[in-house]
Known about the structure:
- The structure holds two protein chains of two kinds.
- Helices cover about 0% and strands about 55% of the residues of chain A.
- Chain A has strands at about 5, 10-15, 20, 25, 30-40, 45-50, 55-60, 65-70, 75-80, 85-95, 100, 105-110.
- In chain A, strands 2, 5, 6, 10, 11 and 12 form a six-stranded mixed sheet that branches. In chain A, strands 3-9-8-7 form a four-stranded antiparallel sheet, with no helix packed on it.
- By secondary structure, chain A is mainly β.
- By secondary structure, chain B is mostly beta strands.
- Chain B has strands at about 5, 10-15, 20-25, 30-40, 40-50, 65-70, 75-80, 90-95, 110, 115-119.
- The mean pLDDT of chain B is about 90.
- The interface between A and B is medium-sized, with 23 and 29 residues.
Amino acid sequence: AQSVTQLDSQVPVFEEAPVELRCNYSSSVSVYLFWYVQYPNQGLQLLLKYLSGSTLVKSINGFEAEFNKSQTSFHLRKPSVHISDTAEYFCALSAGTALIFGKGTTLSVSS
Amino acid sequence: GAGVSQSPSNKVTEKGKDVELRCDPISGHTALYWYRQSLGQGLEFLIYFQGNSAPDKSGLPSDRFSAERTGGSVSTLTIQRTQQEDSAVYLCASSSRTSGGLSSYNEQFFGPGTRLTVL
């Protein structure tokens, strides 16, 4: 069985501070890994993905995640957050078909 | 089409009634997925359609839930005899194709969801 665990349900931070949203996964087969973001009152959007190759993947808005096979982790980081990053973030995995999601982390950025 | 569309956007029903939720995938996408987003449970996979193959129903929580996909395009998720615990946002996603395993990957695009409230 495959599963995704997001270790923090809520992460409050101040603007311009760094942030890390933690994600661990469990799978007996190779998987793809994803971070999705859901802004308030909006749909789910793909933020970044790891399929193969370089273990460090980056999004266009400054987030990055590193695939660590030995620690079965795919933590999401940003060195300096903005108010507009306030959203719910979901880590997910796939072995090629349906996505298995973590329960989500609410990132709240305040000034 | 511009994206995945779902209707209705909101549905309020009484316990025991049946409901139908509709999903229109992106034109040309052969794979279609239903997920449920509920408080405390996060996002859960419900059912997956790929072309004309038999659907993967492994995520359906009970036999009150069913889904069909007509003509390989539009899909309808039906919940019979709704219960209060069925209250959630039901999300549909589509992708261009998938053959399973890691030999291919196609991004899933999500619709805006249908918020179901069972009173």
